[in-house]
Amino acid sequence: MQKTLMVQIREGQKYCKLWPDRIELAPIFIERRVIKATQLAMLVMPALALISMLVQIQYFGADYLPQALACSLFFLSLPVQGLLWLGKRSDTDLPPSLASWYREIEVKMQENGHQPKISSARPKYFELASLLKEMFDKMDRAFTRDMF
Fold first, then answer.
1. How far apart are CA 63 and CA 87, in angstroms?
2. Do the Cβ atoms of 137 and 22 come closer than 8 Å?
3. What is the pLDDT of residues 34-47, one digit of tens each?
4. Which of 19, 31, 55, 121 is the most exposed place for a label (fewest CB within 10 A)?
5. What b/e string do you get for 16-31 counting C-beta neighbours within 10 Å, with b at 16 or more?
C-alpha cells in the first residue's frame, strides 16, 4: 500500500529520533550519515534559500524571480528528501542477514533477562532501530561489546 508523502515524512522524523546515534553502527548502516546530513540541512537550508533568493533578486532584478524561487525551493526540498528516504527505509523489510542478526540480539537480550518491547516475524528497519536503541539503553557495556 502506497503511503502519502506526509505520512512518510512523519515516519522519517520518528525513525530519525529513534535511531541510536552510536559510532559502532556507522560502518554497518548508512542511517547515521543520512540523519546527520538531514539535521544539518534542516538548520542550514532555510537560511541558504533566503540568501539565495535575496542575492539573485538584488543582482538580477525582479525579472529573475521565477529562477530565484526555483533555486530556493530546491534548497528547501533537501531536508524533505532526507526525511522521505528515512521514512521509506524505516518501512523496508530487513534483508535475511540482518533479520537473523536481529533475532540473535533479541535472543541474547532474553537470555540476559530483558524482554524486548518489539518482536516481529518479518522485522523492518524501524523494529531494528527500536531493538538497537533498547539494547544500548538497557544492556551493559559488556553485552554491547560482544555484539560489535
1. 38
2. no
3. 999 999 999 999 99
4. 121
5. bebbbeeeebeeebeb
Residue with grid cell 533479541, as numbered in its chain: 106
Read off the C-alpha cell for 141.
557495556
> What pLDDT was estimated at residue 3?
81
Q: What is the CA radius of gyration of the chain?
A: 20
pLDDT tens figures, 51-87: 999 999 999 999 999 999 999 999 999 999 999 999 9
| Angle of helix 5-18 versus helix 125-138 axis, rounded to 10 | 20
pLDDT at residue 50 above 90?
yes
Residue 1 C-alpha cell reads as: 500500500
